[in-house]
């Protein structure tokens, strides 16, 4: 993985773990969409609001087994997102195959996450 994308991944993982709305606001593209493991779709504002409101809290959050394919000014990263989390007071622990879609910021501000799609790994499906 190239250095810029590796640094982006490190910053994103740390911001998600800490619920750092300010950093996530800079890392997510304005037209960001996140697809959760149960098929729900959140825009950037909704993604950030879960942290700002305290509805989503991570006790652990890891982004591992990452493979990145860069295509010019865009990239696709596929990896495993593992988390120990509480969402709306309920347990949301899990391991997910995650696909991230990234683009280089046109204004020279580095990489931005434009989308993420999460799927529960088979070992945790009923």
What layout of secondary structure does this protein have?
Elements: H1 3-18, H2 21-27, E1 28-35, E2 41-43, H3 44-52, E3 56-71, E4 74-87, E5 90-91, E6 94-104, E7 111-120
Parallel strand pairs: 1-7
Antiparallel strand pairs: 1-2, 3-4, 4-5, 4-6, 6-7
Helix pairs in contact: 1-2
Account of the 3D structure:
It is built from three helices and seven strands. The chain is of the alpha+beta class and 126 residues long. Strands 1, 2, 3, 4, 5, 6 and 7 form a seven-stranded mixed sheet that branches. The N and C termini lie far apart (34 Å). 17% of the residues are buried. The model has no long low-confidence stretch (mean pLDDT 94). This is Nuclear transport factor 2 family protein. InterPro entries: DUF4440 (IPR027843), NTF2-like_dom_sf (IPR032710). Residues 6-113 form the DUF4440 domain.
Q: What are the salient characteristics of this protein?
A:
about 130 residues; Nuclear Transport Factor 2, Chain: A; 3 helices; 7 strands; alpha+beta; about 25% helix; seven-stranded mixed β-sheet
């Amino acid at each position: 993985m190239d250095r810029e994308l590796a640094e982006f991944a490190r910053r994103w993982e740390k911001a998600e773990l800490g619920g750092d709305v300010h950093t996530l606001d800079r890392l997510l593209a304005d037209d960001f969409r996140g697809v959760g493991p149960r098929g729900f779709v959140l825009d950037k504002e909704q993604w950030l609001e879960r942290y700002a409101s305290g509805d989503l809290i991570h006790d652990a959050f890891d982004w591992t087994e990452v493979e990145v394919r860069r295509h010019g000014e865009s990239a696709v990263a596929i990896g495993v997102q593992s988390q120990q989390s509480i969402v709306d007071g309920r347990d949301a622990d899990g391991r997910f195959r995650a696909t991230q879609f990234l683009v280089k910021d046109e204004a020279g501000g580095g990489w931005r996450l434009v989308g993420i799609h999460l799927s529960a790994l088979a070992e945790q499906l009923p």
